[in-house]
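B., you asked whether I could sanity-check this one before it goes into the benchmark set. Here's the sequence:
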Amino acid sequence: MGRTARARRATTTAGRLALLLGASGVMHLVRPRTFDRIVPAALPARATTYASGAAEIAIAVGLAVPRTRRIAGLAAAALFVAVFPANLTMARDLLDDPSSPRPMRVIALLRLPLQLPLVGWALGVGRHARP
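And here's what the prediction gave me:
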């Protein structure tokens, strides 16, 4: 693969990750109650939801800008690690609630091992960004 093709592929990959994070960040701001429920009890739920949404949007913007893509990739990886406790909380809560819909429980469980490829994706975007 030539240099131009690699650069185009890296830009496309970064754009997809930016889209994922940007959409998630907007959802945190538009539907905070959904996310408030999975914030660990030791943290203020609404403030944490808004802060994580703003962080996702900021990282998405950073991924979209070539000059900041490297650091934004690292920030995205750190964010994916940081939100893992919330994903654990969500899975535990859904599994403990017999009235929760089965598809939601399955999604919550599948989401846990998916954090690892997300971290790898973010690190790869940062690593392949042009300095």
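One thing to flag: The chain is about 80% helix and 0% strand. Otherwise nothing jumped out at me.
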